[in-house]
Amino acid sequence: MIANLKKLWKNEYIQTVVVICLIAVAVFGFWFGSQAVLNTPYPALAVVSGSMCVPYNGACDGWTHPFGHTLHIGDLIVVQGVNPQDLNTNYPDSDIIVFHRPDDPEELIVHRIVAKEERNEKIYFYTKGDGNGVNKWPATPEETEYDPWHDIQGNRGVSEDLVVGKAVMRIPWVGHVVLFMRNSIGLPIVIALIILIVIFEFVFPLLRKKKSSE
What we know:
Oligomer: single chain
Strand content: 15-25%
Number of helices: 4
Distance between the termini: 32 Å
Largest sheet: 7 strands, antiparallel
Strand order of the largest sheet: 1-2-7-3-4-5-6
CATH superfamily of the largest domain: Umud Fragment, subunit A
CATH topology of the largest domain: Umud Fragment, subunit A
CATH class of the largest domain: Mainly Beta
């Protein structure tokens, strides 16, 4: 039994399959482990818009000024789940939160808290993109510049139930990989590369071996 296992292990293809499986286990283990440690189903997210970019008013690409204020397109943010009551609402040093958009729960938004209000024993947060409006962060915005979120019941603001967590770290540029994967051509390119690797790693060696044998 042990001898057969050793013989199998010496096979290059078996070794490659084992390595691929270990990499897959490591990636999925890291993702689910991060969810448990950070207490959120979304431990890492890519920034997809320039609404949080200052002072570039939405024209932020993240490449020319990656270490500027707040968030840039292509940043990867680390998100930590928190008790909504513990969030810092003291603008301009308030927390940047990740939440489900009230009128479209499938969409995640990353904006800064500018104020909060308690209604019917529930906290509602008013938010704003740092680069949106006339008064950009850290200038104090007018109430008319707050995000116009309303849920289906007509409640204004972001209910504490919709908060996923707060941004605790940003990593410049890395998020562009995620954005590329979400692109209509990004995923097909990655799949094509995987297929090419499989062909070069397994198919070509088998064909060469078969030709040598003949």
